[in-house]
Amino acid sequence: MSVSHLVVFAAIYAAAVASPGPGLAALVARVLAAGTRGISAFIAGFVVGDLVWFAVAAGGFALMAQTFAPLIVALKFAGALYLAFLALRAWTSRIDAIDAVPLRDEGALRLFAGGLAVTLGNPKVILFFLALLPTVIDLDRVGALGLMELGTIIVLVLGTILSGYVLAAERARRVMTSARARRLLNRGAGTVMAGAAVAIATR
Q1: Which of 13, 5, 18 lies closest to 154 in space, CA to CA?
Q2: Among 1-15, 95-109, 178-192, whose mean pLDDT is lowest?
Q3: How far is the C-alpha of 149 from the C-alpha of 164, rounded, in Å?
Q4: Residues 185, 191: Cα–Cα separation, whole Å
Q5: DSSP 141
Q6: Domain extents for the chain?
Q7: Are 124 and 21 in contact (CB under 8 A)?
Q8: Is-contact 57 133, C-beta < 8 A?
């Protein structure tokens, strides 16, 4: 695949990833409420989810995706319920000290599964890979090497952009030092996560 095609794909994909949506809102809100502990597993779920949808589009399995529509709907609601659960914990967490971590570590597997469910159930991701991707890249002419190159771009672009959001959210979190500020931050993050849950569930 030519470098120009890869650059065009990377630019369009980066713009899509960086645009606000329920996935980004959930990621930022989780960092604001609980810090960066375990966030790499959460991001890994996003990356794997995007790779799954890329594989579906690249393999021409749109019909299969429609066949498994009930599973996709179930994943969508699973992601929404997970975000609602995190929102509730953020709202009800107790802040005893400035450096307290309000949400306990959920574990890498649970965070990964949450990120994966949010991504697989996110309509923006589905729309990009099933509808927009074929108009950007002629998938019929892409060989195995080209698919690997595109997959690598997805991992690098998505990982970089999400990591940037995480760093920005963590910096904002560190500014809030008083217990009262942390409590307000947690409740604000909980509200954002609840809104992301509603956005995912209703689309």
Answers
A1: 13
A2: 95-109
A3: 22
A4: 10
A5: G
A6: 3-14+22-202
A7: yes
A8: yes
For residue 11, the tally of other CB atoms under 10 A from its CB is 12
User: Could you write out the DSSP letters of every residue in 154-181?
Assistant: HHHHHHHHHHHHHHHHHHHHHH--SHHH
pLDDT tens per residue across span 101-155: 444 456 888 889 888 888 887 767 777 777 767 777 776 677 888 889 999 999 9
Query: Could you report the per-residue pLDDT of 143-186, keeping only the tens digit for each?
Result: 888 889 999 999 999 999 999 989 988 887 777 655 555 566 56
Distance in angstroms (rounded) separating the CA atoms of residues 130 and 48: 16
What tokens does 93 get? Answer: 């967490």
Instruction: Please report, for residues 12, 23, 36, 132, the alpha-carbon distance to residue 27 in angstroms, rounded to integers and kept in the order given.
Output: 21, 6, 10, 24
At a CB cut-off of 8 Å and minimum separation 6, what does 80 contact? 121, 197, 198, 200, 201
